[in-house]
Amino acid sequence: DQQVKQNSPSLSVQEGRISILNCDYTNSMFDYFLWYKKYPAEGPTFLISISSIKDKNEDGRFTVFLNKSAKHLSLHIVPSQPGDSAVYFCAASERNGGATNKLIFGTGTLLAVQP
Amino acid sequence: DAGVIQSPRHEVTEMGQEVTLRCKPISGHNSLFWYRQTMMRGLELLIYFNNNVPIDDSGMPEDRFSAKMPNASFSTLKIQPSEPRDSAVYFCASSLGGGHKAFFGQGTRLTVV
Questions:
Q1: pLDDT digits 0-9 by tens, A24-59
Q2: Does B100 touch chain A (CB under 8 A)?
Q3: 3-state DSSP call for residue B103?
Q4: Residue of higher predicted confidence among A18 and B101
Q5: What sign has the CA pseudo-torsion B21, B27, B33, B37?
Q6: A40: nearest CA in chain B?
Q7: Are B51 and B111 in contact (CB under 8 A)?
Q8: Which residue of B has its CA nearest to A44?
Q9: Of A43, A100, A102, the CB nearest to B104
Q10: What is the CA radius of gyration of chain B?
Q11: Residue B70: is the preceding peptide bond cis (ω within 30°)?
């Protein structure tokens, strides 16, 4: 049972335009959300995150939006650059009262930014 | 810091053989995670440790899979016997306890023929 879903396996965008990557989740206990970026033959690297007490977090060209009522979050990249071409993973964690927050990942979306 | 270090980077083995994947977490991190990446399931959490103790191994697919963390700087994921459907990229990640952000190694690409 996928608790974190990325329904678009791939997305193609022109350089300079906006890229919007979407993610849905089912577990209402998730309280922190992250986006990771992965290049081929490398491990995922952290990109941006958002706490469930917020609805928006911005870092340069990257903005993450959270809609808790819809259990939906999105990552906006503007303007998109060819170097942004990678697989983007959405992840969520649930506060379990312990010292470890495990991350549950989606299946990823392959973003291709065309020059 | 060198980051999370995994070895080997690539492993090709025959069906039925034992495979051991290794991970050295970032110094000072006390949580360690093993993930498997497949097209169908994305990044799937197999098991994670906190302070060298296994906390949740519910993601381990079968008894053929086992993981250990004998000390704070080393962990292994073992598959015995290996099968072709185990072919995937296996990632190790570590984090500071209580933190949300995990840091990943470069992964081990396992091919079982």
A1: 999 998 989 999 999 999 999 999 999 999 999 999
A2: yes
A3: strand
A4: A18
A5: negative
A6: B106
A7: no
A8: B104
A9: A43
A10: 13
A11: no
Q: Which residue has the tokens 């995990």?
A: B102
Cβ neighbours of residue A70 under 8 Å, at least 6 residues apart? A24
What are the tokens at A56? 């928006």
CB within 8 Å of B63: residues ≥ 6 apart: none
Per the CB < 8 Å rule, is A103 touching B45? yes
* A44-76 burial: b if 16+ Cβ within 10 Å, else e: beebbbbebeeeeeeeeebbbbbeeeebebbbb
Distance (Å) of CA B43 to CA A16, A81, B72, B91: 29, 25, 24, 9
Q: Which residues contact A89 (CB under 8 A, 6 or more apart)?
A: A6, A35, A36, A37, A38, A44, A105, A106, A108, B42, B43
